Hints:
A: alpha+beta; globular; B: Enolase-like, domain 1; 14 strands
Amino acid sequence: MTDKREITLTVNGTERTVEAEPRKLLVHAIREDLDLTGTHIGCDTGNCGACTVLKDGEPIKSCLTFAVQADGSEIMTVEGMEDLPEASGELHPLQEGFREEHGLQCGYCTPGMIMSGKALLDENPDPEEGEIREAISGNLCRCTGYQNIVKSIEYAADELNKEPAAADGGTVTAEQRFADDDFDCGVENCCGGPSTETPHVEGADPQFDDVGGDDT
Amino acid sequence: MKAASFEHHEPTTVEEAVSLLESLDEPTILAGGQSLVPMLRFRLARPDTVIDINGIDSLEYLHEEDGYLRIGALARHADVEDTDVIADRYGSFADAAPLIADPQIRNQGTVVGSMAQADPKGDWGSVLIAHDGEVTARGPDGERTIPVDELFLLPYDTSLMDDELLTEARVPAPVEGEGSAYHKLKRKTGDYAMAGVAARLVLDDDGRIEDAGIGMTAVDITNARAADAEAHLEGERPSADLFEEAGELAAEASNPESDEHGDAGYKERMVDVLTQRALGDAAERAGAVKRRVPQ
Lengths: 216, 295
């Protein structure tokens, strides 16, 4: 047995250290040492993609790389999705997409699918269906037949494209978005949309105006 | 743990890697690891020491220089997909890269590592054959150049010495009137080729074929050259009939084995078809004018 080594990984934005033998696979370091069991081990042969994580922003199979090879890199796992600004503290639009579009049945492939989807949308915010299929071609799903997974990623792309762009071209955070009083999401009783409690505006609709209404 | 224990060395220069190769007992070199890591974890390979070259920054390049497309040992398959000069000028490379494995594996696996692995089902060997490519090996006595035809000996076996490191693969930059393509038959994404053919054509001012290169994947014990087909093309004008003859010659030169995906006869027929298609694309990219067929 060879000596353990200290490996430093920035996982989902937090610096973590792991003591590992060189032969330890990255997926085992993530699941067993860091206790982040969202990253799955499916086939154990490098085929299925359930173990997909982002290493320095690019999707890789964490069962096909040793933890020591990731020393010093930034790793993102499915657990980090909710912390992204686009998630607004809740589910990320990709996760929401899988829920809304029924993109999972047993759910085993889902973390890998989400990470591949994330890598795609980071690079190509408005992908064609074929591009989505290509992006998840390294991820196997034995339940869904893929149709709803593709729809889930399309849902996320649509949601993310709806986000108003910030002045610097970045994405607007929830706080920034709702700090703007004039923002109108168009939904009744929500952020500026038509509401029963909306203050009456003179001239906005004659039937409610003092002049010309029923009570005159 | 999946893999047997090994000592992990991380040189940061080529010199350091070569001196480790010289001093350690039968070490294995780890680059992208997309073939080696599975071999280690299934214990098909049990080296005592692994020399991880991912820290050698000087090997991270992919560019045209001094009349060659030069691919450093740490250039990934995905880098080939993302390089503009390849999309513009190297049709065979641009065709082959996205057909390799899947996106995650292309982000890790390297072109040069695939050459060193010498899997007869690897795609890059055929592309290098079609382009008359070569590789650079660095050993204790310095550098030597190995033409790709002299690199592959047997499945997973090359003419590299135990203390040599492959640092670069390169092909001559395309000349005026050159075009190339790669066609691959596989059942689904992630599979190796059942058969693959890389073709390169150079047309002279008169539109005749001045030079031709054809490399074949997965149909012999190594990536193989279809030399008779190449010779048959040279001096002729590109045409469907000519490419049909070349396809037949390539099929004759191939030596596939029957397996669960198809019998040898079927694969030979596929070599024929893929050769014709690759030659057609190469000719078009070389600027050959398609003759209008009278109705």
